[in-house]
Specification:
By secondary structure, the protein is mostly helical. It is 65% helix and 0% strand. Helix 4 runs antiparallel to helix 5 and helix 6 packs antiparallel against helix 8.
């Protein structure tokens, strides 16, 4: 599970769609929903009965999701792809900020790949996926192979940031 800090670190303002997606995909706990509702009320950007209710949170995830669905309304369906991109970007960027060795990072990337239902654009840096270009890892050192994979991760993040900025 993650918390809202991953958005803060990436300097991306989450939306209620992002919160809903995170809760639905078990990236967030109910406490993060309450925290976001409190942020909204404190910033006075958003105020509604629903947000106030979420700030007081209860432990019924279905009730919380129904309340968020009321908040996001029709915009929910049009924001799913953008929301997924935000989550991918923030999760992977936050992993890179952790001081993980390459094997730990690779293992976590493999899990994220599954969490997002195996997106094709992540395949190039997933440990068990076949290499699609003519690169032959046996002709390179372990360090060179790791740098290549990390470069692919950074390229992916750059691509996602560009998609977010479009």
């Amino acid at each position: 599970m993650y918390n809202l800090d991953i958005f803060d670190v990436c300097q991306i303002q989450p939306t209620w769609n992002d919160i809903y997606f995170g809760l639905k995909n078990k990236f967030l706990e109910l406490e993060s929903v309450r925290e976001y509702a409190v942020r909204c009320l404190e910033s006075s950007n958003e105020y509604s009965e629903e947000i106030t209710e979420l700030a007081l949170i209860n432990d019924d995830i279905l009730n919380v999701m129904e309340i968020i669905e009321k908040i996001i309304g029709k915009e929910h369906n049009t924001q799913n792809e953008l929301t997924s991109i935000k989550w991918q970007y923030c999760i992977i960027k936050s992993l890179l900020n952790e001081r993980l060795n390459f094997e730990e990072l690779s293992g976590k990337l493999d899990v994220i790949y599954a969490d997002f239902h195996y997106p094709e654009d992540m395949e190039e840096f997933i440990s068990y996926m076949p290499i699609k270009d003519n690169y032959n890892p046996t002709e390179h050192t372990k360090e060179e192979n790791e740098k290549r994979i990390l470069r692919k991760v950074y390229d992916f993040l750059e691509k996602k940031m560009n998609e977010l900025n479009d």
